Amino acid sequence: MKVLVLTGPESSGKSWLAAELKTQFGGVLVDEYVRWFIEQNPGTPASPTSPKSPVANCDGKTRPGPGSRAC
């Protein structure tokens, strides 16, 4: 079995590209899981509402590292 993993920042077209690749070549499309998990488990270390979370920006999405900012 061949596996293709698409990575990149949010809103960069990964889901669209995955759907296009599936249409063209077939195969199985596995949806994103992490975002759903965080939404279902607020307060987990990866959640924007957690005190252990990386800095969250204005829209509530976490952006760890030097580019992080808080409002």
Word description of this protein:
- This protein has two helices and no strands.
- With 71 residues, it is an all-alpha fold.
- It has a domain at 12-55.
- The relative contact order is 0.10.
- Mean pLDDT is 74; it is low at 66-71.
Distance between the termini: 45 Å
Strand content of the residues, in percent? under 5%
How many β-strands, per DSSP? 0
Query: What is the residue-averaged pLDDT?
Result: 74
Radius of gyration (CA) equals 15 Å
In N-to-C order, the SSE pattern is: HH
Give the overall form: elongated
Low-confidence stretches: 66-71
Number of helices: 2
What summary fits the major beta sheet? Answer: none
What class, by secondary structure content?
mainly alpha
Fraction of helical residues: 25-40%
Brief descriptors of the model:
single chain, 71 residues, mainly alpha, disordered C terminus
State the gist of this model.
The chain is mainly alpha-helical. The chain contains 2 helices and no strands.
Write the layout of secondary structure elements.
Blueprint: H1 14-25, H2 34-40
